[in-house]
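Sequence only, no structure available. Ideas?
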Amino acid sequence: MFFNAGIKFLAQLNRAVEMHAKHRKAFNDFNNTFPPAAIEKWNQMVIDWDKDATKLNPYEEPSESK
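Reply:
I predicted one. Tokens follow.
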């Protein structure tokens, strides 16, 4: 029984490694569509928000001002 679990785990691990590579490529392709300055600004917003949740939340879609 342990042997079967090991085989199943190995298959799932291999699939996870494949999917990681696929998702990493998709992320890099998407990320490369933005200017480096925009990426740096975004990264800083995330860092700031992680340290202080009262800062502008970079994960929220901006809403139109009324």
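The chain has one domain: 2-51.
Hope that gets you unstuck.
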